[in-house]
Design a protein that fits this description.
By secondary structure, the protein is mainly alpha-helical. The protein folds into 3 domains: 112 residues; 116 residues, Leucine-rich Repeat Variant, CATH 1.25.10.10; 107 residues. Helices cover 70% and strands 0% of the residues. The chain contains 20 helices and no strands. The protein is elongated, with a radius of gyration of 30 Å. The relative contact order is 0.05.
């Protein structure tokens, strides 16, 4: 019966696992090669894992060998990076950071060997991840450069990125580099070279550039001092507080809070308090602004305490109590993180003014302690501890 007959399958050929002579030669590396020559070999024609190894171990390869070793492998490294993918670019930037951080090359050698490669890669159109990696490498390298080098190479790099006709990413890079440079130069140098550009970028047509530049402003206040911060920096922040985009207003609140230590008490009383009083009426504010105010509340109130008018303590601390018991879980968590700092401010006010001190200091402490039950449940999501309040 034919249907019961059986013939064995034709024996299938099993792929050979034995490497050919060509493959063996490709994977074989002369054991007598030193680390530098091996890295050059990998970069020039190795397989992917070998090339990745060469980039990952760049700092170790140069350790103890310094500039002569870098000069040997620099051309192979540059050629390889010109065609390397995003993963390798990030690894290379990390290796450059390690070289600078561990002082494997001298500051002068860093400026000659590493800086041109970093600048070249920042100037190329790359992914956000790659650009971020090379910017971090630049920020690690720049402090080791002298002021002359910063003025002659890094400032022009930043300003070239800040052309208003340039793309968004380029202008954001400009803002970040300028923020990094201001603490490395004298205020006179910064003012002469790029402060006008900084202030103009606070009013850029794209809100993301305004946000990026605004985030750098506190660094300028540290160097500029109270008088210049009050006359030139503060007006930009106050204007950004009125920005049409919520993200820009959030950035302005954060930056203004961080600038407060560098403003005089008179300026706080005459210019700043009015802006923060407006923020103490949360029902009028976007929920994102409420969260930002809550997250900074302790810093705000402790910095402004000495400038308070008699009616301010009740306004500020009542606002905090309101924020701390809202239904929005993120808002309550932000308030919870500031509770101790706000309590310190209320206690300080009470010690200075007592019961008769313009609003009843003891009552303020009682009021702040009264919200503890609401914010103690802040980690429990949007429904606990705050009752059924509105998100607005």
């Amino acid at each position: 019966m034919e249907f019961l007959s059986w013939e064995p399958d034709v024996e299938k050929e099993v792929p050979s696992t034995v490497k050919s002579d060509v493959e063996i030669e490709k994977y074989t590396v002369d054991e007598n090669l030193n680390d530098v020559d091996r890295a050059i070999l990998y970069l020039n024609g190795g397989i992917a894992i070998q090339q990745k190894h060469a980039v990952l171990n760049l700092s170790q390869t140069l350790k103890g060998r310094g500039r002569p070793a870098f000069d040997q492998l620099s051309q192979a490294l540059k050629n390889f990076l010109n065609k390397a993918d995003a993963e390798i670019q990030v690894l290379a930037a990390d290796s450059f950071m390690a070289i600078a951080e561990n002082q494997i090359l001298t500051p002068n050698d860093i400026s000659i060997c590493l800086l041109p490669i970093v600048i070249r890669n920042i100037n190329k159109e790359r992914s956000e991840e790659e650009t971020e990696a090379w910017l971090k490498a630049l920020f690690k390298i720049v402090p080791s450069l002298g002021r002359d080098k910063i003025r002659s190479e890094i400032v022009p790099l930043a300003l070239s990125k800040g052309d208003v006709e340039g793309n968004l990413g380029s202008r954001v890079i400009c803002a970040r580099i300028l923020g990094e440079l201001v603490s490395l130069l004298s205020w006179e140098d910064s003012d002469r070279l790029f402060v006008r550009k900084v202030l103009n970028m606070c009013q850029d047509v794209d809100y993301r550039v305004r946000v990026s530049m605004c985030e750098q402003i506190p660094r300028f206040a540290v160097v500029a001092g109270p008088e210049i911060s009050s006359s030139r920096i503060l007006p930009e922040l106050l204007e950004l507080l009125q920005d049409e985009e919520v993200e820009a207003r959030e950035a302005a609140i954060t930056s203004l809070t961080h600038v407060l230590p560098y403003l005089s008490q008179e300026v706080k009383q005459t210019q700043v308090l009015a802006a923060f009083r407006h923020l103490m009426r949360p029902l009028e504010l976007d929920i994102r602004i409420q969260r930002r105010v809550a997250a900074l509340f302790g810093q705000i109130v402790n910095q402004l305490l000495d400038s308070f008018e008699p009616e301010d303590p009740a306004l500020f601390f009542t606002c905090f109590k309101h924020l701390a018991v809202k239904a929005d879980g993120d808002l309550r968590r932000a308030a919870a993180g500031q509770f101790a700092s706000v309590l310190v401010a209320a206690t300080t006010y009470h010690q200075r003014h007592g019961v008769g001190g313009g609003g009843g200091g003891a009552n303020l402490i009682t009021s702040i302690l009264g919200v503890n039950g609401g914010i103690s449940n802040a980690g429990g999501g949007g429904g606990g501890g705050g009752g059924g309040g509105s998100n607005s």
